Amino acid sequence: MGNLLRWYWTPFAAAGEMDQKPIKPIRLMGEDLVLYKDKSGTYGLVDRHCPHRRADMSYGWVEECGLRCNYHGWKFDESGACIHQPFEEIAHPDARFKERITIKSYPVKECAGLLWAYMGPLPAPELPVWEPFTWGNGFVQVVLSEIPCNWFQCQENSIDPVHFEWLHDNWAQQLRGQTNGKKPASHLRIAFDEFEHGFTYRRIREGQSENDELWTVGRTCLWPNCLFTGNHFEWRVPIDDDNTLSVGWFFDRIPEEMEPFHQERIPWWYGPIKDEKTGRWLDSHVMNQDFVAWVGQGTIADRTQEHLGESDRGIILMRRRLLEEAERVRDGHEPKSVIRDPKEARFVSLPIIGRDFFLAGYSMRDVANGNAGFRYPKSFVFQAGQPEEIGEAYRDAMGMKPDGTPNLDRLAARA
Ligand code: FES
Ligand SMILES: [Fe+2]
After folding, report:
1. pTM higher than the cut 0.85
2. Residue 324: Cβ within 10 Å count
C-alpha cells in the first residue's frame, strides 16, 4: 500500500524502546517486519519471516552485527545480506550459497528520539531535520498509540481548524459538566495556504484579530501525514489500511532559570485509548478526543456519505493534492516535499507560532507572577495515561514542585 507515502521517511517507534529490548515486531504500511538494534548499535528493519523456511525473525537474537534466526541460525545484516549460514558453510564451504540470499530490508535512522523508516524507491531522500528538533532547553517526550482506523481520516483532522472549537472546547465543557461556563469563542474566519512542506491553516476566533499569530502564521498540516502546531508534531502513520500509529513528539520549553537542560534519552510511552472498565474510548485529553472522532468515522470513512461545507475547504485542498501527488508518483515523478539536498535537510524551518518563546524561554517567576500572559502546564494535556515518572521528570525539569506549583526557592537558587 501507499506508493506515495513510501517516498517519505516515517517515524514508527521511539529510539528508547530499543534500549530495553533490542528486537520488536513491527507492522508498517501493511508489511510485517522486525526492528532490531544489534550490539554495535546499528538498527535494522527486515522481513518478519526468514528467507530460509519462514521462521519468525522477532524470536531471533542480535549479535555484534546483525540479527540471527532462531530456527537454523542464518544471520542477516541491516542491508538484508545473509552473512552466516552455519550448517551450509560446514557442508559446502565453497558453495557461497549465502551470497544468493537476502531478506527484505528497509533503511532506519534515529533522529529526535524517534526511529524513522524509509520504505520507498531507492536512493532514499534525506531525512528532514525539522526546526524544533534542533532546539535546546526543552523537555521532549514521545507518545505512541495505535488507532483502529485508516490514517487519512486522521490526517484530515490536521487541516480542520473548526473542530477545535467543538471537539476540544464545547465537547470538553460538556464532559466536565461546565455547560453554564463561558461559551468558547466561535470561529469567524478561516484560511488555508499551501507551501512546500504542506499547508497552513489560519483562523480568527471571537476576540482575536488579524494581528494574532493564529492568523498571521497559522498552524501546519505537514505533508504528507502530520500535524505540526509549533512545538509538537503528530504523525499519523499507516500500520495498514485499517490501523494507524499515532506518533507524537512534544517539546516543552523549560523556564530560563532551569537552563541549561539536556535529556540523555528522550522519554517515551504508549498511550491507552480505551477505558477498560466501560469499553468506551477515553475522552479526557485533547488527542484522545481527536481519536474518538476518527474511529467514530468508521474504519475507513465512507466519503460518499459526507456533506462537505465551508469548514472543509482545507480538507478538499488536501485531498486534491494527495490524488495529484499519487498520480505524479504513478507517472514516474518525484512527489512534493522530497528533500535531496543534505544541506537543506539539516535544518528545515516551518511556520511557528511563538518561535521567540521556544528559542529564548521565559522566566518561571514572571510566569508565576502573571507577567507573561500564559501558564506553564502542570501536567500533560494531550494524551491520557502518562507514566507518573515522566510527569515527575517534566515538573522537575520545569522547576515545579510535585504538585505543579513553581518551586520558587529552587528557581531563585538557579537564577
Ligand atoms: S528458518 Fe531461519 S534459519 Fe531456518
Ligand atoms: Fe483536535
Report:
1. yes
2. 12
- Rounded to the nearest angstrom, the distance between the alpha carbon of 271 and the centre of ligand 2 is 16
Smallest CA separation from ligand 1 atom 3, residue? 72
Residue ranges covered by each domain of the chain: 5-117, 131-414
pLDDT tens string for the chain (415 positions)? Answer: 589 999 999 999 999 999 989 999 999 999 999 999 999 999 999 999 999 999 999 999 999 999 999 999 999 999 999 999 999 999 999 999 999 999 999 999 999 999 999 999 999 999 999 999 999 999 999 999 999 999 999 999 999 999 999 999 999 999 998 877 788 999 999 999 999 999 999 999 999 999 999 999 999 999 999 999 999 999 999 999 999 999 999 999 999 999 999 999 999 999 999 999 999 999 999 999 999 999 999 999 999 999 999 999 999 999 999 999 999 999 999 999 999 999 999 999 999 999 999 999 888 888 888 877 778 899 999 999 999 999 999 999 999 999 999 998 888 887 6
Regarding the beta carbon of 46 and ligand 1, being less than 6 Å apart is answered: no
Taking residue 117's Cβ as centre, other Cβ atoms within 10 Å add up to: 25
Give the CATH number of domain 5-117: 2.102.10.10
Query: Under 8 Å CB-to-CB from 84, ≥6 apart: which residues?
Result: 66, 68, 73, 74, 75, 98
Distances in Å between the Cα of 336 and the Cα atoms of 62, 88, 351 are 37, 47, 18
CA distances from 212 to 224, 234, 297, 399 (A): 27, 23, 33, 30
Strand 138-147 relative to strand 268-270, pairing? parallel
Q: Is 72 in the pocket of ligand 1 (CB under 6 A)?
A: yes
